[in-house]
Amino acid sequence: MPSFDQASLHAGIADPEMDSMRILSETALRFPDALSFSSGAPYDGNHDLSGLTFYIDRYIKHLRDRGVPEQRITRLLFQYGPVNGLIQDEVALMLKRDEQIDVPVEAIMITHGFQEAALIALRGLFASPDDVLLAVSPAYVGIRGAARMLDIPVRGILEGPDGLDPQAVAEAARAVRAEGKRAAALYLVPDFNNPSGTVLPRAARERLLEVAAEEDFVILEDNPYGLFAREGETQPTLKALDTDGRVIYLGSFAKSAFPGARLGYLVAEQEVVDASGTVRTLAQTLSKAKAMFTVGSSTLSQAVIGGYLVEHDHDLRSATRELAAVYLERLDATLAALGEHFPAGADHGVSWNTPRGGFFLTLKVPFTADLAAMERSAREYGVSWAPMSMFYLEGGGDREIRLGFSNLAPEAIREGIARLARFIDATPRDIPDVSEGQA
Q1: How many domains does the chain contain in total?
Q2: Comparing C-alpha atoms, which of 193, 140, 144, 141 is closest to residue 164?
Q3: Are residues 169 and 193 both part of a single domain?
Q4: What is the pTM of this model?
């Protein structure tokens, strides 16, 4: 049997930094007795097995009501389906109703979650080794991993308290061009960024679209958390504001419906003209990559999500109001517990941000918060979290941690923060206090 030196494998496999997604996902399994703030798993208290068959039956009824022949329905659900999916009609109606994104069904591709959507978009857009991906930093680990697997260089742009500064983006694009390369795309999560929880203000969104046009790049807008804003605080998506075809929209049903469906979508209505003069949407053109990656997304998963959308009249925002309230209650419980255990003015060297929604917030601590510290916290104090250094693209975050509160009940959050406070109090400081009280 042959053996391999890991260094001989592709850099996306050999690089230890590419293990971060697996580490975050498996932390709860490695430390089953610890309360876990380490992942962003969605709330699962509203899942009901009967819902699976209900929504599949609902989608089948929807197809019958539309006059689709029984043989065709059977084939759609039991055979390989169309590469770009079955439920583009339902997703198009949802996008128009929830986000004021009005695109033809040909502009939509159904994917295996956000991760496949990102891989497909990157594979299509990045044709030259001199093409560079600009990305918010800190960033979701999945985008760096996708770029790494495709040998795409990434240039991180540090965000501030209100997300990315459009001027910093413009400067980064110009710096890339000065190196003889091209900024082909920018990745960001404008609503409740993972890991920081920041929200990009509307004025910055509008200016960022102008920068994209001026510097000639496209924007990859990832929006898994936008449904979970507080009442009256919803921002328009970049895609809804886009009048120049600069935005490719990447979405997922993992947070709004359930993660086990593994369904997301890519929205790209930009025109592509082939050598014969045939015009198709970018989403249709990218189906070549989709076909090579996964052939097609699960038809059964699509039936479940399709039935969910039909049952709720394609109004996902209204359908998830109770779920949004759960996440906001958990955010408020986390902020309250932090304020109780780390009161303003006390000598604890801890500070944090105050997101208005989403799944995460970030905590600054007066010691190096690496994986070794996290494991000690989980093993000895019964609480785990994620080192923020995992999310920075070009170094940083060594004394910061990400707290994911989405899948912990308020009472567990209060106990978890109490355990975290004991761990922080017992950990020697290796720098002067970073701040006092709440930031």
Answers
A1: 2
A2: 193
A3: yes
A4: 0.92
